[in-house]
Design a protein that fits this description.
Blueprint: H1 17-37, H2 41-45, E1 48-55, E2 63-64, H3 65-83, E3 85-97, E4 103-114, E5 122-135, E6 138-148
Parallel strand pairs: 1-6
Antiparallel strand pairs: 1-2, 3-4, 4-5, 5-6
Length: about 150
């Protein structure tokens, strides 16, 4: 099978085209999940815009990402250290460039526990839908909607 990538006028992909843009998005998520899994809450929070909002699969209202989720991640990190480690894996990434230069992304995120001395069972499967905006040298999440497959 041969795939041909065609660039059209008004294409917001930049010089590298879609493959380069897709690789940037993959690197962004790899770094973001590494910060989350290593409890580097400061660097993780910086992957969101100052005014980013995150919708989580809970009855709580959407949270301002930098202030609200930073506290949530720090509290969860302490609990997880007592019971083992949680790791996140992002896959099946769909990247859709928009005319305004932002990216609309959707991916599956698996959260699995790595208990002390045991095997890593999958705990949750999430769908993450983001709007990413360009920042100097990287991307940032402006809006994130997280849904859990078993609650959808």
């Amino acid at each position: 099978m041969t795939v041909e990538l065609v660039r059209t006028e008004g294409d917001p992909l930049g010089n590298g085209g879609f493959p380069a843009l897709y690789a940037e998005a993959q690197r962004f998520y790899a770094r973001q999940m590494e910060f989350l899994d290593t409890h580097d809450t400061g660097r993780w929070a910086e992957t969101f815009t100052e005014d980013a909002v995150v919708e989580l699969p809970s009855p709580a209202p959407p949270l301002p990402a930098r202030s609200g989720l930073g506290r949530y991640v720090r509290a969860g990190a302490a609990r997880r250290r007592a019971h083992g480690r949680l790791d996140h894996w992002v896959g099946m990434l769909d990247v859709r460039p928009r005319e305004d230069g932002t990216l609309r992304t959707r991916c599956s995120a698996l959260v699995h526990a790595v208990p002390h001395g045991g095997g890593p069972p999958v705990l949750y499967v999430y769908a993450m839908e983001d709007v990413l905006v360009r920042a100097p040298g990287t991307w940032r999440v402006a809006h994130r909607r997280v849904t859990r497959d078993d609650l959808a």
